[in-house]
What we know:
This protein is an alpha+beta fold. It has 8 helices and 6 strands. Helix 5 (154-174) runs antiparallel to helix 6 (178-190) and helix 6 (178-190) runs antiparallel to helix 7 (212-223).
Amino acid sequence: MNGELASLIALCLHGNAWLGGVDATPPHLETENSTFKYVRSVQVEAPSGRLVRKTSRLVGVAAWLEQLRSSGSDRLWLVVPQASSSPTRSLDPHLAAAFANGGEWAVMSTGRDKVLWTSTWTVGDQGAAEHRIWDVRCTGTRLAGVAHPQQPDIEPSRDELLRALRRVRHFADSNSLSSWTAWFDKAIAAADADDPVIAYNPDLAPAGMLDLARTRLLAAAVQAWVFGGMGSWNDVWLDDETENRKLTEVTRRLYRAVLQALTAVTNASYALA
């Protein structure tokens, strides 16, 4: 799973649980959550508001969430770009996602105001203890006019993800990519598992926040994330040109389906308490 995207999902899910709850202390995700395992620091630049006329700089996720609550924000949403190729892109989105800051994902806070939060990850200290090499800087931009959160439905998102997984699994099997066939089988199985497990980052959501349908979809989408660098599905190359075109087609569809599934889970309606 891409660490930058995973951290935004965790921020939305844990942040919403706190914003909608009664706990006095917000979560310190950069020290408590696995998605921030390799993060050394989080700094936030919040835009000026109705009551505060200057930009404020905050340190840490907890301070950020407290500022959001005090400024009247009541919900966080995952924002993903359209996962399609464009003349302005040098790489397909599923390839760009393998590089730092290549995903163009963001978080939107809503409530009294709507703010789009974008993050930039830079290597601060390659020799940092416990490999916490990344410094994360989040910048808020106030949104003018209407900005609707993306809210794909859970069941259609599950259906599309399974269709994309079965298609890419068939392609892998047809080209004797047995290790990848097994990988996609795990993702397909997660969508119907009695006790689905979120690979790599089991603490993406607070315990008990997700029902079974959402947990299954999240588990399947995380397992289906194969868009890394060397050794990943992105690194597969075949000698046959026709098969390589098919490879691009099935990969693009899978990437779109995975992002839709992750957005559906993150931006679903929850009974927060």
